Amino acid sequence: MSSIQNDGLFRTIVKTLSPFIPQVEKPKKKITLTNKLIWTGIAMLIYLVMGQVPLFGVNVDPATDPLAFARVIFAAQQRTLLELGIGPIVTAGLLMQLLKGSDILKLNFKDPNDRSLFTSATKIVTIIVIVAETLLYGVSVYGGATPSGYHLTILIAQLTAACIVVMYLDELVQKGWGLGSGISIFIMAGVAQAILWSLFNPIPIPNGVEPSGLIPFMITSGMEGHIGDSLLRSAPPAPVPNMPSIFAFGITGGILLLLVYVQGIHVDIPIVSTRYRGFTATYPIKLLYTSNIPVILASALMANALFIGQMVWINYNPNNDNPAFNLIAQYDAQSQNPTGGIFYYVTAPRSFEATVADPVRAIVYVLFLTTIVTIFGRLWVELGGLSAKSAAKNLLDADVQVPGFRRSESSVESLLNRYIPSVTIIGGVIIGLLASVSDLFSVFGTGIGLLLMVDILVNYYNLLVREQVDVHMPKLASLLGRT
């Protein structure tokens, strides 16, 4: 009885608030692929420009960055309008997906009204998360860098407005004006930008004169007769982390090739249509069955945990003299990077030199990230509607069946159970190992960033294929859409 009342209250609140929240209208007629690509490009261009517009009224040390480890994942740029990137939007979206997958929200997605209700609810939750995160981040990170409460208010207003603009850019793309998802485009652009910056950045390293980018450094060191210095770069008297080197570039290329190969591994289950006689196809179960969701979940969890840990340290243990808190984390006063405690061992060394200097930390990090990604993958299968039971129901609802098996959920579910639990665990271990080991060797764009970029590019390739089929063979595209 209480669940019915809660469902009614949820619907009432969403329907009451929805009229006050602007919506991006769906296109009234079909958008051509060319126009979709143009709108997607415009959204990405606006996002990239926002990442170059500095926040007004703040002045902080760029070496102090609480979100440095999550910048690529959240497509964020420090001290710009994209300070928080897509972080609040991703957090709200994952929260709503978990509520839906766990059946806390009783919604029937076959009903257009319920689909619209879920979309409106997601936007409301996103705005709430944006306001909460901008307030927390603004006060905690920039509170001491603003001369007055008035300036802090302006700062928080900038962060909030920027996040809302990003939310609408994502909605513009998802509503059919663009192609795919705006969030995916922004992540992909952020990772690609990081890789290009690692290769071509001409700006000198901190407290040095040599260029940061690998190509400019190779040119200058070659002219001086020290081209070998670019193999494993370090800057005396202490190594600068994440300096692009030939070694890191080779590891990056190898990881990319390996990711593309692993993305193509799948088990094909034959299916036939019960509506269209003679139509046969395959239902692929990919080795990376849960895609990049477990990586995003694990990254979001670690980002929030480390951020909260830094805030507690700044306020209650800035001198690392609290024995109890030191067990959790100790930080360097200048860079605010972990130097001890649990947080130190669950964050990546992020350089070959640091890995060699502390191999125990590297091993613990690899084991931790692999374990947590695998656990999140298993949970997401159950809560995200990817279980064998859900997949069997979706196949039958699409009017297809597996040859040789009765047309019943239990029969198809038993077949899918042979594969889905196994690929979930194996895929989680592979993703965790690739991401963690990549981070140890300072790959361009970070290991998790490369995972996300490759997955997004594969998905966009599939989207472009479907768009081409839709243009040239609309009846076949309609049928494929049902299966």
Q: Can you walk me through this structure?
A:
It is found in: Endomembrane system; Membrane. Belongs to the SecY/SEC61-alpha family. It is a multi-pass membrane protein. With about 475 residues, the protein is mainly alpha-helical. The protein has helices at about 1-15, 35-50, 85-100, 110-140, 150-175, 180-200, 215-225, 245-265, 295-315, 325-330, 340-345, 350-355, 360-385, 390-395, 410-415, 420-440, 445-470, 475-480; strands spanning about 265-275, 280-285, 330, 340, 400. The protein folds into two domains: about 1-195, SecY subunit domain (Preprotein translocase SecY subunit); about 245-483, Orthogonal Bundle (Preprotein translocase SecY subunit), CATH 1.10.3370.10. The protein is about 60% helix and about 5% strand. α4 runs antiparallel to α5 and α17 crosses α18 (about 475-480). The longest helix has about 30 residues, at about 110-140. The chain is globular. The model is unreliable at about 235-240 (pLDDT under 50).
Low-confidence segments, given as residue ranges, are: 235-239
CATH topology of the largest domain: Preprotein translocase SecY subunit
Distance between the termini: 36 Å
Strand order of the largest sheet: 2-1-5
Strand content: under 5%
The percent range for helix content is 55-70%
Order of helices and strands: HHHHHHHHEEHHEEHHHHEHHHH
Shape: globular
**What CATH architecture of the largest domain do you see?**
Orthogonal Bundle
Whole-number count of domains: 2
CATH class term of the largest domain: Mainly Alpha
CATH homology superfamily of the largest domain: SecY subunit domain
Main sheet: strands, sense, barrel? 3 strands, antiparallel
Which structural class do the helices and strands define?
A: mainly alpha
Rg, Cα atoms, Å: 24 Å
InterPro entries: SecY/SEC61-alpha (IPR002208), SecY_CS (IPR030659), SecY_dom_sf (IPR023201), Translocon_Sec61/SecY_plug_dom (IPR019561)
Membrane topology: Multi-pass membrane protein
GO cellular component, one term: endomembrane system
Keywords: Membrane, Protein transport, Translocation, Transmembrane, Transmembrane helix, Transport
